[in-house]
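Here is one chain, start to finish.
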Amino acid sequence: MKTHSVYGANILSGSSFEMLQMAKTIALTHHEKWDGTGYPQGLKGENIPLVGRITAICDVFDALVSNRPYKDVWPLENAIEEIKRGKGTHFDPNLVEAFLNIMPRILEIKEQYT
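Its structure:
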């Protein structure tokens, strides 16, 4: 499981297209944690690229509020609380605040595509 971020980054590597370069960075860093306990590189704080820090929050939120083969959907309130609990450990605290501030828009978008 922990190797998927490296495999994804390798698949996306070598492109001169800025969007694919960003996708590579996201693939490689979306499981890093603010406190340095993530993987694959154990990056900490602002050493984690911004796109990886943003994607980390979005990835966890999506996993919680979406049905998956291995788990049921979490109630929205519980998912939000889980994101809040990760503030400063799993997630960049400033980005958690920004995420929570735009929650109404996030829910509009989620509703539009589900």
